[in-house]
TrEMBL record:
Family note: Belongs to the DnaX/STICHEL family.
TM stretches of this protein: none
Mitochondrion is among the record's keywords: no
Protein name: DNA polymerase III subunit gamma/tau
Single GO term (MF): ATP binding
Organism: Pontixanthobacter aestiaquae
Length: 603
């Protein structure tokens, strides 16, 4: 009763409630803001909705940074057929089938690991179930990636696309579940699709249980199989599927693909480093991306942030190309001591002996291909191309094939040996010494020839000796040896023998020679190989400083000079020069046999 109304005429307690009401609303709104991040304010009728997507709140930034890292193989998995590299024939076939509405009820994707078998299966599932952004589209080789089926399949949550790993579901009961489920129509998609990975792991009974359903499935069901071992599938399954063999990805295409990914990841990478990674991937995109992931991490540890060839080589335990070429050159040159030193050097740098053997085998293979094709050798640098080209011209096909067989045997030994370094040393030493042995085929032909004709008698003129030099053996002619080397196809060695070699002594299996002073390079290994290839015998070849017989080219030039001098002394020629003092002798043609020249007079 003591209370009196305020100036507004309201009781005091009513005034307090009116003062408190706005405060409570503000507290409630503040509580909603704290719980829903301002959603209550945005949905309030008093404020219009924003026209643009708001910037994320600062509190969301740490959450985004703490997201788990996705490896490159998952992050860059193809989401459209255009992103699937190296499989253009398969994509073209699928596009034609979709366009003509000639879709098989079962597809089989085969190929080595990491070429895109499972990715292709998911892309086919997208292509068959895509409805387009407007929801009115049909099957297409270019799924939109925006509609509900596309996004759900990409995220692996579509109820009508069932993916099963046959490695962990191998029995009849697992297949029986599929057989029971195919009778029911798809829930929301156009087709109910079963993707079975590593399908070759299913048991025989499971395959038999699936055969009838696989041959006559309902119209709304498609089967997509993927396997790395297609030979383990029963022929009854193969005959019921449309098969696609996914090819290994070429090295150059892999290198280009990895370069684009490095650009997207803001990572600098050397071309040679990417080429090493692509080669180590052996045609597998997934393997290559895993190696690239490791190489990027390796580069970050170094503080440079760049993927370099040296770091990749160190990471993979590879020998650099220059070291491989030097080692092969020492092997061809017969330098056992230098070759062992080169192997030890590479081993101390962390190069695995098995990788070293593979590198040498790769060089021999590329030399052989360059020799057969007659074109430029396949090599990343001009220096390596020149070296391979030189070896391709120097070695015979038989030598390369024998070398490959021995390296292949050595590779297997290194892989199985308890001490791989010792095994690699012994294998390459065996190859080096075997290079000096006669060719088995030529040796057999020579023995057959000797058995039928007997040992040939010595030429009558073979005993003629040269001035100032010991006479060659009576049963060996240097010119005949040169002709044999020429006939054996070693034209370069025959040319060297004609032009440079001055024979000091010549016996069966032994040659001592000197050369004109302008020639400095070592031709001993080349002469040994040429003589062994022509005679089937090992030769001891030694260069000395003693004076030898003139080379065959020097002898030919001397004979020509003698013929010219004799011609000038002919009475008719002397009379002609007397009548025409300004006349001169001119060489017209050099294409006469036996090195003869045709001379004419020009007044």
């Amino acid at each position: 009763m003591g209370d009196s109304p305020d100036n507004s005429g309201n009781p005091p307690w009513e005034t307090e409630e009116q003062d408190d009401a706005p405060t409570a609303a503000e507290l409630e709104a503040a509580g909603q803001d704290s719980m829903f991040g301002g959603a209550a304010k945005e949905t309030s009728a008093s404020k219009p909705e924003p026209e643009t997507i708001p910037e994320p709140a600062p509190a969301e930034a740490p959450v985004e940074m703490n997201q788990p890292y996705r490896v490159l193989a998952r992050k860059y998995r193809p989401q459209t057929f255009s992103e699937l590299i190296g499989q253009e024939p398969m994509v073209r076939t699928l596009a034609n089938a979709i366009e003509r509405n000639r879709l098989a009820h079962a597809f089989l994707m085969t190929g080595v690991r990491g070429v895109g078998k499972t990715s292709t299966a998911r892309l086919i599932a997208k292509a068959l179930n895509c409805v387009g952004p407007d929801g009115q589209g049909g099957p297409t080789i270019d799924p939109c990636g925006q509609c509900e089926p596309c996004t759900a399949i990409a995220e692996g949550r579509h109820i009508d696309v069932i993916e099963m790993d046959a490695a962990s579901h191998t029995g009849v009961d697992d297949v029986r579940e599929i057989i029971e489920a195919v009778r029911y129509a798809a829930v929301s998609a156009r087709y109910k699709i079963y993707i079975i990975d590593e399908v070759h792991m299913l048991s025989r009974n499971a395959f038999n249980a699936l055969l009838k359903t696989l041959e006559e499935p309902p119209a709304h069901v498609k089967f997509l199989f993927a396997t790395t071992e297609v030979d383990k599938l029963p022929v009854t399954v193969l005959s019921r599927t449309q098969r696609f063999d996914l090819r290994r990805i070429p090295t150059d295409l892999l290198q280009s693909h990895f370069g684009k990914i490095c650009g997207l990841e803001n990572v600098e990478a050397e071309d040679e480093a990417l080429n090493m990674i692509a080669g180590a991937a052996e045609g597998s995109v997934r393997d290559g991306l895993s190696i690239l992931d490791q190489a990027i991490a390796h580069a970050d540890l170094g503080g440079e942030g760049q993927v370099t060839a040296a770091r990749v080589q160190d990471m993979l335990g590879l020998a650099d190309k220059g070291a491989q070429r030097r080692l092969l050159g020492l092997l061809f040159g017969g330098d056992a001591k230098g070759m062992l030193a080169a192997i030890d050097e590479q081993y101390s740098l962390g190069v695995e002996p098995l990788a070293l053997m593979r590198g040498i085998m790769d060089l021999v293979h590329r030399i052989t291909v360059a020799q057969v094709s007659g074109g430029e050798a396949d090599a990343p640098t001009s220096e390596e191309r020149e070296a391979l080209k030189e070896w391709a011209g120097r070695l015979s096909p038989g030598q390369l094939h024998r070398l490959w067989q021995m390296l292949l045997k050595g590779h297997d030994e290194v892989r199985q040996a308890p001490d791989s370094l010792v095994s690699a040393q012994m294998a390459l030493l065996r190859v080096l010494h075997a290079a000096e042995l006669p060719d088995p085929g030529k040796l057999a032909k020579k023995l057959e020839h000797l058995a039928t004709t007997g040992v040939a008698a010595a030429p009558a003129d073979a005993a003629a000796g040269g001035s100032g030099a010991s006479a060659p053996s009576a049963n060996i002619s240097w010119s005949q040896l040169v002709e044999s080397v020429q006939a054996n196809g070693n034209h370069l060695a025959a040319s060297i023998m004609q032009l440079q070699v001055r024979v000091v002594s010549l016996e069966t299996g032994a040659l001592r020679f000197s050369r004109p002073s302008q020639f400095k390079d070592d031709i001993g290994p080349q002469l040994r190989d040429a003589l062994m290839g022509a005679t089937g015998e090992r030769w001891i070849v030694e260069e000395c400083s003693e004076e030898g017989e003139p080379s065959l080219v020097e002898q030919q030039e001397a004979e020509q000079q003698l013929a010219k001098d004799a011609l000038l002394k002919h009475p008719l020629v002397e009379a002609t020069f007397a009548a025409f003092p300004d006349a001169e002798m001119v060489e017209e043609d050099t294409a006469h046999p036996q090195g003869q020249r045709n001379w004419s007079k020009r007044a």
